[in-house]
Amino acid sequence: MNTDNANFIDIEDEQGRRYHLHKKPIGVGGQGKVCISDDGKYVVKFLNSNSPQARSKLTTKLRRVKRLPIENLPIAKPLSMLPRPHVGYVMEFFADMISLKKMMIPPKGSDVLEHYVATGGLVRRLEILGRFARVFSQLHARSIAFSDLSPNNLFVSENAEYREVRLIDVDNLFITSQAGEAVYTPGYGAPELVKNSGLPSTLSDAYSFAVLAFELLTLNHPLKGDVVINGEPEIEEGALKGELPWIEHPEVDINRCSTGIPTEYVISPKLLKAFDTTFNSGLNAAEQRTSMNKWVELLDLAADNTLYCTTCGSTYYRNQDICPWCDEDSVPAFMIGYIFHYDPSLKEKFRELRQGKDENLSKDFLRTLNTIGTVSFQENTSRSIERRTAFLDTSIRSYDEVATIEIKSERITIRPIEETSLWVSRDDLEEYKSVEERGIRMQPGNILHFQDASKPHVMIYFRVGRGAKK
Question: DSSP H helical segments within 175-201, as ranges?
């Protein structure tokens, strides 16, 4: 390794390829550090240990990782090992990305709230977390645990306009039927790992994810209240082992936190319940923790039900009476889309039960359907509908856009994206029309369908939602 100036280092991999790396690491974890190339296309992980045993173990891990079914996931794939005496490897990467940690720590001297809004505010954080949760859900569905999950190895678009996500530091991926090494980044390890009483698993992943999700949303660690922050190191050690209540415990307030973003600003009631499940009953009972699938559902739902403040430009939940960031009490007009799964056979059965009486058929029939979720459409603001909503897609393509919806003066304009087939109807499910490429206008009470009337499908029923509750 040769130093060409104070800020960069040069290194070759085993194939003789040279990399010009920033000396300052972009991530520091439980095993070592990660540095990025000057062109942003590669990252190099350096392990703390340079022993022959460490090299042999890493070689075995990388061979195992290359056999894992992760080809279609946004994970930085290992390319090559570093030559002796170094122990580490090169990964592919993508330019213009930053670690999640940088979104959690405001620059020195900056205003916390300004940093929060400048990095995308509430809605971007929810959307980013939803995407990460879906990646981990995909891994867990393939019986793969990530092991050392922390904000140092999760990366997002540096530009606040984008929501791309990537995972690095993959040498700790392992099939859950095999014994994994208890590696974790301090502050993000599940209590059983900290106490050395358990091994990494999908359940310890779920715990680590909940920690970083809470921290990204509130800028507070869920177990580090004032008594921990201001106390001796032994108190923090005990908290991370699960010996203290979490900072939002509903009954015990000895570990409350007075810093960061107020929880009620950024944590919806359903999200708070999921966090409490993980950090209360699930703190020392891993099987009770909120699963990655549940995190996907809740984070997507929360992101879908945010509004933009027309005064300060930040985002907040639609069930709040005022913008919590600037106290603007003029809540913008919006509509609520109620998402149902429609089966045409159910409609016919309902008609039979009603014995041909069709008055109020729409309202009565819709009440018999299960609401999958809701999505809010703000006046004069365009919102995209994605595959996860339109087709209940759980794949890595679930965030692909299929339609855009814009509300103006209580008129709904719907436009398909890339030849997506859409239909609309009245609320009595009659006058079924196909949506052409140029789009179509609807009104409250109408329904958008993502399949023709003859087949089961997802549909969205629009209603005016001023002052509505989620």
Answer: 191-194
